[in-house]
Amino acid sequence: MKTTVEIIEEIKAGLSGDAERDFPYLLKIAEEYKDERAVLEEIGNIMFSHIGQQYEKDMARVIEEDLKMPQAYRKTAELMEKKQHREAEKVMEELIDKVERLNWFLENDENVYFNFSEPFEEDMYRFFKQDRRTIRVPLIDMANMYLSYGSILVELKKYAKAASVLEKALSFNPVSTAAGFEYLEALEGNGEIEEYYEKCMELHRYCFRRSDVARNLRNLGHYFTLQQEYSVACSCYMVSMAVLNQRHPIAMQELRNIERKGFSETPDMDQSYQILEELGLPYGPNDETASLAYSGYRHFIDQNMPDAARYYLSIACNLTEDEDLEKELKRLTNAS
Fold first, then answer.
1. Could you list the residue range(s) of the whole structural domain that residue 47 is in?
2. Residue 49 scores a pLDDT above 70
């Protein structure tokens, strides 16, 4: 019986270095050793370590073409626009079934696979999760694929299945607010109200735009409405609008709904801040998130990389609304 090392050496020897030829070969290997995690992990290592970046790009293209991924996404978008959710579900289900047969992107003690949407998401993951493993980007955007499928399932009110799929989306991007907000809907639909609250609290630190901070506060307001803690719920909605510096139609509608329930003691803004602070609830952007963005700005200024510095400074400005930072951002923008 062959050892794992011998199997891996045989796999490497069978590679041509041509992605067009190697994809069906590796697909066959993956099927043959589908129950051998060590072998499947090595297939990922082969593409990321042994051949090089051009091979990665070629393999990504070959996989997309073979699985007809662009066509599947276009078809799904068309069906969703027509409100044909069940048909869209079927298209995504077939695509995911094909992708999951690959089973190549398996984390281990050394490597982890993530599809972050932008650089600051990776920074947040490193900072908040304290994970020092090597981050690899899957050749397929797994996070977006599972998010798209999960969103369809939420529309179909298949909440238990949606939650399971969205957990996979979050496994490939743990700090995604897009996946996180969709996951909240699945949790509520599934009756997991306390889990809904816990996820809201976790998501707060990953909200690096004020619009997301406000949305998460509205989600907390919804939780406290369900708990019939109307004073806290109103405070969440009030502060969510303060975060945006304007009234928001959803927050206003929820406040009116609470009033219709017979609660007429809506706290003013000062009282709202006080209520949330006393309960240990968020009442604005997360300080650590804003500080992390500012640190990124300082780092790239020191490295003389103005474009990257401007990106991080724009996040810090949005979260803090600090006038001095906004002046510096304007200076950097004009200098580019």
1. 4-67
2. no
